[in-house]
Amino acid sequence: MKTRIPLALATIALASGCADTRTHMGASRENDHNVLSGGPITGVTIQDLPQAVQSALKQRVPTAEIADIDKQTQDGHVVYKISFSEPAKNPTMCLAQDGTVVEPHSKKDAAGQNNTK
Description:
By secondary structure, the chain is of the alpha+beta class. 21% of the residues lie in helices and 20% in strands.
């Protein structure tokens, strides 16, 4: 009889501990900030991008994990430089506000000539 009470208490404690409602722990558009649907947590996020840029990303790299989004200006136009977590699989890309892929400026040497190295 003395062992039944602690056993019953232990059973109740285990059952009540497992009775907590489950919360979804998987990634989704609402809670995952590191995949294409979310982008980085700080700085420019995917929600900050123009709709055309978001659409281009979803079309070109729908499952890529974004590491960083950098808003830049090239020739007076806004360009978004997007780096991915797996650069060998998804190299960095630059997209204009209309969603078109643009080439980043080539580095120039001190004389103003294109550096071919």
